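Form 7-S
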Amino acid sequence: MCQLLGMNCNVPTDICFSFEGFAKRGGKTDDHRDGWGIAFFEGKGCRIFLDAKPSIFSPIADLVRHYPIHSTHVIAHIRKATQGEVILENCHPFRRELWGRYWVFAHNGDLKDFHPKDFNFYQPVGNTDSEKAFCLILDRLRECFPQKKPPLEKLYSVLGEITQTLAEKGTFNYLLSDGEHFFAHCSTKLSYIVRQAPFAAAHLIDQDMTVDFSELTTPSDRVAVIATTPLTDNEVWTQILPGELLVFQDGLPQKFA
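Output:
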């Protein structure tokens, strides 16, 4: 299946180090060769880079690896197709507008026998189960809260309900953000790490590369990195439990009852 990478932090930060290792999984250290994508929130704006080529061969991936875009919310994805052709419109992450904000979504998994037809406002462009699920999520949120974004507790409750319904269709690991709140749902496999003072060095699993974050940060910085499988081999990653829906804010995870 696909692989996910996310970052949420309290100050704009670049994801170059994590993406360096993550991109290698798109055809070198793993067999996710069916396209990739990454989204960066910058204020209310959102940059998205997509390519149907494997990330290890993509000139666009090279640009992202060497261009330190600073953001507090980042979602990336490398694809191993289970549904839909290997074409650009099927590359994650997907983006739509809701309540005057961009929403970005990426999915790892396979929703079996999932052929919804009852879309309302949001329509899929490609033919993946992932984009269909994203459209259904936003349709449900728009239906429940037609005028404006609700308080986080109410948003979390409705998102949790639709997430549980979709997860019954198959494997449904996902990352979702509007640049203000960052949601991560684990169906089978998803981990995170929070880096904060005192910062230390980290070594990538997929590339022989080490970065000493104490040289690049301030004591008040805090960064959460979320990934399908850990990206480093000298840090302790926390496994998100199956069925958990976490909200990350300012580099810290939260879970509502």
